Amino acid sequence: MKKIKLVIFTFILAFSFSINSNSKTVPASFADLAEPLMSSVVNISTTQTVTTTANPFPFQFPPGSPFEDMFKEFGTPQERKSSALGSGFIIDEKGIVVTNNHVIQDAEDIIVRVNGDEEFKAKIIGADPLSDLAVLQLETTEKFIPVQFGDSDKARIGDWVIAIGNPFGLGGTVTSGIISARNRSIGLSRYEDYIQTDASINSGNSGGPLFDMNGDVIGINTAIFGRNGSIGIGFSIPSNSAKIVIDQLIEFGETKRGWLGVRIQDVTQEIADVEKLDKPKGALVASVAENSPSDKGGIKAGDIILEFNGVKINKMKELPAIVAKTKVGKNVKVKIWRNKKELVKNVLLGRLETSEDFKVSEKKSEPLKDIIIEDLKITVRKLTKEDIKTRKLPNQTSGLVVTKIGNTSPLLKSIEVNSIIVEAQKTKVKTAKDLEKIVKNILKSNQKTILLAIYNNQNQRRYIGVKLD
Predict the structure, then answer these.
(1) Which residue among 132, 198, 303, 434 is the active-site one?
(2) Over the stretch 304-322, which tens digit does the pLDDT of each residue have?
(3) Of residues 206, 236, 241, 419, which has the active-site annotation?
(4) pLDDT of residue 56
(5) Active-site residue among 40, 102, 230, 387?
(6) Which of 226, 252, 278 is the last residue of a domain?
(7) Residue 22: inside a domain, yes or no?
(8) For residue 365, which of 119, 328, 384, 459 is within the disulfide window of CB 3.0 to 4.6 Å?
């Protein structure tokens, strides 16, 4: 019995030691970490001229009124200086500073304060609105203490972090917290993969660094939830993504992002069922730009991109960021799902910044009469060249414009009037008869799901899967 108790006690002791060894203690203080970093974090103030033409009166004088000339100077444009505050951090001893684009956007003068009292003028080396990043050069020959970038991919939910910045213009301020979430998208910019933190971030913290416990920058503080200050939900651009943009801005003064030339959308469960995928995954190609890298590489609308350059695409939103990070001019392998099987296409990546939209023919044609598709309870007419021109669609587009949707239509919640149906079951639709035939075949089958490719009212090409009664 004593032996059994001894074994149990030994097991508990070993298990307890294992738990303690895998957990990190709460820092007693952040002082030793923060102190050497403070001199590398800067405060940024900008000024710009704002022109206003506000009428000081709550009414307008009628034309020809004797008071019109008397008070017209009150309505003339007035110029005033506007200022803004932000944060940044030094990444090179020569005074190269990283911040957010929105901190310095449209600025006429940029003043950077280092160590709380030294002020320097700065010029913009390069700025990128799509990622909300900017790089500045301090106009001085002095040497500075830079900080280093860490590996943001290694940052885990629950890790301790500290933010240093210039909230509300108060100067070097340190706040602490943990990483609350990863891979956040909040609709602020084109490429989003934010680190979420509960370290207090307020107005004026924009552009400042988020440090890990090694004192390395793993994020650039960019946004918060809450208009009146921090509520414990802040967002930072991951350093690994930011560094690619920053290096390009320093080298070229602009970005050079990879470009596929496709418009994509999520793969829904209905679409996965029709395409015989084991689960919703990848990015569905809604349209392909003419003469784009994808077009030349053989990728077509309706393909589902499963893998890009060896990286699996689990969700649609992952693809744009991965493509943008890939070097322009690189040959990449793109694994796609087409006709219920995997294919691999070789694509020579283009450059996003030099890409062109589809061109539209100037030729006009007369619209045809409306036709009712009984089985779908919708009314359609043939797409015309004038439609193509007005809506700026690809030149060779053909299809049907939806002019009416019945209250009992199975498409009622999926499309809107003026949507354009261009495909049904991956087959091009040129006439109402084409669509009617496809629908009747579906209704005779056991599948009862129709896959439509449409252009919505924002002229975006989308796929929708709808169950038919």
Answers:
(1) 132
(2) 999 999 999 999 989 998 9
(3) 206
(4) 52
(5) 102
(6) 252
(7) no
(8) 384
Distance between CA atoms of residues 160 and 383, nearest Å:
57
Residues 395 and 437 in one domain: yes
Biggest distance spanned by C-alpha atoms of the chain: 111
Same domain, yes or no: 268 and 245: no
- Give percent of the chain with pLDDT exceeding 70: 83
What range does the domain containing 100 cover? 33-55+67-138
Interval 7-33: pLDDT, tens = 444 444 343 444 444 456 678 899 999
Domain membership flag for residue 307: yes
- Per-residue pLDDT of 126-139, as tens digits, reads 999 989 999 999 99
> Does 206 participate in catalysis according to the annotation?
yes
DSSP strand pairing (378-382 vs 283-288):
unpaired
Same domain, 242 and 302: no
Query: 241 catalytic, yes or no?
Result: no
pTM: 0.67
Of 177, 199, 200, 196, nearest in space to 238 by CA: 196
Q: What is the rounded CA–CA span in Å between residue 325 and residue 248?
A: 11
399 in a structural domain: yes
Q: What's the half-sphere exposure (Cβ side, CA atoms, 13 Å) at 136? A: 32
- Given 83, 114, 138, the domain boundary residue is 138
* Residue 386 near residue 332 (C-beta atoms within 8 A): no
Q: Quote the mean pLDDT of the chain.
A: 84
**Rounded distance, CA 360 to CA 384, Å?**
12
The number of folded domains in the chain is: 4
Half-sphere exposure of 304 (CA within 13 A, CB side): 28
